[in-house]
């Protein structure tokens, strides 16, 4: 068959790319965009085709592509990318929320000239990323979520876990900081070695030094034999210092030295003990504010916060509440060896509207209470703890904004082009409340 000429095949290629479900962007070697198909504009929520690659949602395409090439073995000894296709993912912020986009990119040479062109193929991986997180609950150390911000946290955990650096976890009580610490340990090179946890708030100040570093026989009244401390018990593994903000200032210099030198002396001894441990610390207090107030040493803070990670409160991830309710009901029923109850719509709504000041820990308690107090195989409002029911009754009496009707809420969303942050601001509420109203009134964004 006679081969087609370039001027004949070009329109065919363009027509094909225009109808692909994946986004396609083509740029020259100077970063000027010369082609963008409709799928790319839709995926990136761009009204007009970008003129430069750097205009694509603020993503540094070149930097991300180079990093991917280095990680995927597509760079030479000097760090120059081969030009073969590599892939990377980026989370972009759009009017409809955050979206996880996979970029596959490489350079090709067009038959019409010898100038290399950069081709980007874009795919929406948001739902895939959520499903991966959902099915990860089979791992006892996994964090159950499909919230974008929390998924970003988990990605960072997986990135830093193999690297032997201190990590500081900050967040309210009950958010899952201990679970995150265990996840870091399990995914680290120390996973077969001990994971030792110390709750600094649960140990009296006078005993903390002995708890950390141990003591020798006769060092104080009641020290009838040598005892190793938690630092030595964790040798080769991970030491998790929970509620690190509770450590008294008088002990912080010795703790700092032990972290820096991996060396300490047990109480009553002047013989140094050498250890090899990784430190993960956690606090429900703002340690930076404590440093400013003189209640926590700055040098210790910066030693602990090499990698600071914030664990979000449950009220900041309202879309996870239903997911966690289902998960914990299943766990409680398996543990108690009872049939799984259903949750009535009214009971579910009470839990969706509750702000969960105790976070996931309080949710687990409420689910256990609800399962045990279920009526005829159903978790009804009266099955739930009294705090949740009282809060619901109080909200009904005192919150006039709850009287908004569906039409008004829908009009506000449409007026802000479904930008939930702006809509919530216009209504004088937070995003989690807006989300709950939308769920209650069965309002879905047009693209969901």
From TrEMBL:
Organism domain of life: Bacteria
Swiss-Prot/TrEMBL keywords: ATP-binding, DNA-binding, Nucleotide-binding, Transcription, Transcription regulation
Transcription listed as a keyword: yes
Residue stretches making up the Sigma-54 factor interaction domain: 143-372
Species in which this protein is naturally found: Acidihalobacter ferrooxydans
One example GO MF annotation: sequence-specific DNA binding
InterPro entries in the cross-refs: AAA+_ATPase, AAA_lid_NorR, Homeodomain-like_sf, HTH_Fis, P-loop_NTPase, Sigma_54_int, Sigma_54_int_dom_ATP-bd_1, Sigma_54_int_dom_ATP-bd_2
Protein name: Sigma-54 factor interaction domain-containing protein
GO biological process, one term: regulation of DNA-templated transcription
Stored Pfam families: AAA_lid_14, HTH_8, Sigma54_activat
């Amino acid at each position: 068959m006679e081969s087609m000429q370039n001027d004949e095949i070009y329109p065919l290629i363009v027509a094909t790319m225009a109808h692909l479900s994946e986004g396609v962007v083509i740029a020259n070697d100077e970063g000027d965009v010369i082609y963008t198909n409709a799928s790319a504009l839709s995926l990136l929520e761009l009204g007009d085709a970008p003129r430069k690659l750097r205009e694509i949602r603020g993503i540094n395409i070149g930097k991300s592509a180079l990093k991917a090439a280095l990680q995927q073995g597509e760079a030479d000894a000097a760090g120059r990318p081969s030009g073969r296709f590599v892939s990377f993912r980026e989370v972009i912020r759009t009017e409809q929320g955050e979206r996880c986009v996979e970029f596959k990119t490489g350079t090709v040479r067009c038959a019409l000239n010898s100038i290399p062109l950069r081709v980007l193929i874009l795919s929406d991986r948001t739902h895939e990323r959520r499903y991966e997180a959902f099915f990860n609950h089979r791992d006892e150390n996994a964090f159950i979520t499909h919230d974008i911000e929390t998924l970003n946290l988990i990605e960072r955990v997986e990135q830093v876990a193999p690297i032997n650096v201190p990590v500081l976890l900050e967040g309210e009580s009950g958010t899952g900081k201990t679970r995150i610490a265990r996840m870091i340990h399990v995914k680290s090179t120390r996973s077969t070695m001990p994971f030792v946890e110390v709750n600094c708030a649960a140990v009296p100040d006078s005993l903390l030094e002995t708890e950390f570093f141990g003591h020798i026989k006769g060092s104080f009244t009641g020290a009838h034999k040598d005892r190793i401390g938690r630092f030595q018990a964790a040798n080769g593994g991970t030491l998790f210092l929970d509620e690190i903000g509770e450590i008294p200032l008088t002990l912080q210099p010795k703790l700092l030295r032990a972290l820096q030198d991996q060396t300490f002396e047990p109480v009553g001894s002047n013989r140094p003990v050498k250890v090899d441990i990784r430190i993960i610390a956690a606090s429900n207090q703002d340690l930076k504010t404590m440093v400013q107030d003189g209640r926590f040493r700055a040098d210790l803070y910066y030693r602990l916060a090499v990698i600071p990670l914030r664990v979000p409160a449950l009220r900041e991830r309202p879309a996870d509440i239903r997911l966690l309710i289902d998960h914990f009901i299943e766990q409680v029923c398996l543990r108690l060896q009872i049939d799984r109850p259903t949750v009535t719509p009214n009971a579910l709504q009470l839990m969706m509207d509750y702000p969960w000041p105790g976070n996931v820990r309080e949710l687990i308690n409420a689910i256990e209470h609800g399962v045990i107090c279920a009526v005829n195989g159903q978790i009804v409002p009266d099955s739930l703890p009294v705090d949740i029911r009282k809060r619901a009754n109080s909200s009904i009496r005192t919150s006039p904004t709850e009287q908004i009707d569906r039409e008004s809420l829908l009009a506000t969303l449409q007026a802000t082009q479904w930008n939930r942050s702006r809509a919530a601001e216009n209504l004088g509420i937070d995003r989690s409340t807006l989300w709950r109203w939308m769920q209650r009134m069965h309002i879905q964004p047009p693209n969901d």
